[in-house]
Amino acid sequence: MRGNGSTSVLSRESLLALRADTPGVANVVHFNNAGCGLAPAPVLTAMLDHLRLEAQIGGYEAAAARADQVRGFYDELAALINCGPGNIAFASSATHAYTTALSAIPFQRGDVVLTTRNDFISNQIAFLSLRKRFGVRVVHAPDTPEGGVDVDAMAALMREHRPRLVAATHIPTNSGLVQPVAEIGRHCRELDLLYLVDACQSLGQYPIDVDEIGCDLLTSTCRKFLRGPRGTGFLYVADRVLRAGYEPLFIDMYGARWVAQDRYQPVETAARFEDWEFPYAALLGCAEAARYARSVGLDAIADRAPALAARLRRSLAEVPGVRVLDRGTELGALVTFAIDGWEAQPFKAAMDARKINSALSFREFAQYDFGDKDVDWCLRLSPHYYNTEDEVDEVAAAVAELSKAR
Ligand SMILES: Cc1ncc(COP(=O)(O)O)c(C=O)c1O
């Protein structure tokens, strides 16, 4: 998934231009890109232009007038993850995309969902809900001693259980771990198992290639490392899944035609998973965000953002009373740590007071991972390519000062 770094390093001039394009960097040290990235100016402009047009000529009429640009959303997202535009369904959040995908799987009592100990909280809750309603069994593959899923053990569980679904989160919300989703995918393809990937934290941070991953379904938001607007996400649906006739449980008048009084016909493309109503301004913002990320270059981003995070981890590891929590053979741009002598909210408030944006994670976000690490909460810092080394050092110094002041 990593870029080779040979032609991709961002020059100082490009970095300055990218920061000039990002109004928010003048106000805050934004290390909460894993929550929501700072939108670049073209994303903001695309959305404001459309909202103005809606006010001037009417919402439906504005969508019709911008039909080409709306199609651009599908083209841009498809180019970003290497699929066709017909494989992309817009969704209002990653979770909405995920549960819509789950609703398409005709689970039977005793079916197995095979997942990891680091899959996202809402996905884990959804699996437990499937267990409660349908008697599905949820099996978690073990981790390696270094952290991250043990792919060989997971493959053995695939052969043992023949799961109805294999699910993996590429980068969890609660640590910088990058899971080997393509290795898992190779086993799924070999065994012809349905494979769902949550790429919420990796989209816009790493190049994503659905063919290389070998997934059938992939979900993401557009608001995090992709730097699109809130309230947006998408579901990728592979051709083989569309051809096999998977459709969401509740399919609306956009996803299906009501062809006779007692019959509906799902549409051919991933639009089958969409609703009729769209936030068009946000959709156009996403198209712009995808275009922007591709113009910066995903290899360059994948070189820079995790490198800034690594620099931060190195500095934090030197601070007495701080325990860096990220484990795994590959780590991305999410840095998590525990700090002695502080409660969660006051610590975050102290960072806020320094205009450093961060996020808290609690035990209930990651029952397995935080149980293993024996922490009840941590602070998450997530730099992006438009952040600077100076900002990293400023953030590390702020944590060191707060650690001393406890
Ligand atoms: C790994 C991961 N998956 C899914 C989600 C959920 O995204 P959304 O809030 O768009 O539903 C998040 C959000 O933090 C996440 O980190």
TrEMBL record:
Residues 31-394 form the Aminotransferase class V domain. Gene3D superfamilies: Aspartate Aminotransferase, domain 1, Type I PLP-dependent aspartate aminotransferase-like (Major domain). Keywords: Lyase. The keyword Cell inner membrane does not apply. InterPro entries: Aminotrans_V_dom, PyrdxlP-dep_Trfase, PyrdxlP-dep_Trfase_major, PyrdxlP-dep_Trfase_small. GO terms for molecular function: lyase activity. It holds the Pfam family Aminotran_5. This is Selenocysteine lyase/Cysteine desulfurase. It comes from Nonomuraea wenchangensis.
